[in-house]
Amino acid sequence: MPDLATGDVAMPGGIEPGAARPAGFGHAFASLRCRHFPKVYATGWIWSIARWGLGFLGAFVANDLTGSPRLVQLTGTMMWGPLLFAGLIGGAVSDRFDRRRTVLVQLGVLVPLTAMMGALALTDALRVWMIYPFMLVVGLGWIVDMTARRALIYDLVGAEQINGAMALEMLSSSAGLLLGALIGGTVIQTLGVGAAYLVIAAGLLVAMLIMWRVPAPGVAPASLAAPVEKPPPFLRAVAEGFRALPANLALVSILGVTVFVDFFHFSYFPIVQVMGKRVGASPAMIGLISAAAGAGMMAGSLWVAIRTPHRGKAYVGGSLVACVLLIGFATLPSYWMMVAFAGAAGAALGLFGATQTALAITTTTPEMRGRAMGLLSMAIGALPVGMYALGELAQAVGAPTALVIFNVAGFVGLLVWLRVRPEVLSVR
C-alpha cells in the first residue's frame, strides 16, 4: 500500500520506492510487474476498444439514417455529456466505495444493453432516437472507468510507477480507438451494424470476467488494523473536491488545458463520418481514418512511456501541435492525406493524453485522488459541449470550415490560458 505521506509504495520485481526511475523501453512496462495490475490493465484495453467502437457505431448509424452533422455530433455529446455533470460525483463514489465492485457493476449493466442494441439492429428495429440514451449509458460507464478503475491503478502501482502506468493507459485508449474504429467499420461493411454491437457485447463480457479475477480488497484483523477515519458524508465529499481546487494552481492549470483541447480539438471524432462521406469513403475506409488517429495516439503515448519526458511541456506541446495538424486534415480533399494528417494529429494528441491523468493524480493528495479524477472528468466534460457546438457550426457552414474555425480558436485560446495560468509548464 502507498505511504499516505509520501505516496511511495513497495514494488515487486526489485523496484524500491524513492529509487531513480530507469529510462527506456523496460521502464515503460515496469508497472506490469505490479501484482494484479495486468488484469486491471487488460480490462481497460477491452473497455477502450468497446467505448470507441460504440462511439463509431453510434455516429455511423446517425449519419446513415439522417445525414445530419448536427445529429451525428449529438451522439458524441450524449456519450461524453456525463463527464460534465457527473464526474465529481463519480470521483466521490470512487473515494468512498469498493472500486473493483463499481467497475463490475458498470460492465454488468453495459453487456446486456449492448447485446440488446445488436438484437434491435438485426431485426431492423433500431431507430436513430434509440442511439442517444444508449450513448448516455456508455458515457456513465466512462466516468466509472476514469474515476474508479484508474484510481485503482494508483492503488496497485503506487507513485513510483504511475507515470509509466498512465502512459500505458493512454496506449490502451489510443489502441482502443484504432481497433474499435477498424472493427466497427469492417464488421459493419461485412456483417452489418447488429453483428458489430454483438461483437462488442462479447468483448465487454470478457472484460467483466477478467475484472472478476482481481481479488477484492482485503480487510486487516481488527487488532492489527490502524484506526481509519470515518469518510465524510457523500455530498460533503463532493463539495470538498470543489473547495480544494482554487488552492491547487497546478491542477487548475492542467484542467484549463484539458477544457480547451477537448472543446476545440477532440470534439471532431464523430464528424469524421461526415468528412469521410464527403470524399466517398466506405464504412471500412472511414474506420481507417479514425484508426490512423488511434495509431498516432499509440505512437505518441508509447514515446512518453519510453522516454518519460517533462510531463507538463509534453502535455501542452502535444495539444498545440494537434490543433495545427487538424487544420490540414480539414482542408485537404484527398482521402489518403486525411488519413495521414489524422495520424499525425493523433501522435501529437498522444503526448497530451499520456501525461494528462498522471499530472492530475500527482498534483493532489492521496485522499483526494478520486475527486481529482472527478474534476478531470468534468474538465473533459467540455468535450460534449464542443461536439454539439461543432455540429451546429458544421450544419451552418460545412464540416471542413467548422473544423478550421474550431482548431484555430483552440490554438489561440490555449496560448491565452497559458499566459494566465502557466503552472502546468513547471510540472515534471
In N-to-C order, the SSE pattern is: HHHHHHHHHHHHHHH
The main pleated sheet reads as: none
CATH class: Mainly Alpha
Mean pLDDT: 79
Q: Choose one word for the global shape.
A: globular
β-strand percent reads under 5%
Kindly report the CATH topology: Growth Hormone, Chain: A
Number of strands: 0
CATH superfamily: MFS general substrate transporter like domains
**Content-based structural category:** mainly alpha
Describe what this molecule looks like in 3D.
- The chain has 428 residues and is mostly helical.
- It has one domain (25-215, 240-426): Up-down Bundle (Growth Hormone, Chain: A), CATH 1.20.1250.20.
- It is 77% helix and 0% strand.
- It is built from 15 helices and no strands.
- α9 packs across α10 (283-307).
In short:
With 428 residues, the chain is mostly helical. It has a single domain, classed as Up-down Bundle (Growth Hormone, Chain: A).
Blueprint (SSEs and pairs):
Blueprint: H1 25-28, H2 37-66, H3 69-96, H4 99-122, H5 128-190, H6 193-212, H7 234-244, H8 249-265, H9 272-278, H10 283-307, H11 311-331, H12 335-362, H13 369-380, H14 382-397, H15 399-420
Helix pairs in contact: 2-3, 2-5, 2-6, 3-5, 3-7, 3-13, 3-14, 4-5, 4-6, 5-6, 5-10, 5-12, 5-13, 7-13, 8-11, 8-13, 8-14, 8-15, 9-10, 10-12, 11-12, 11-15, 12-13, 14-15
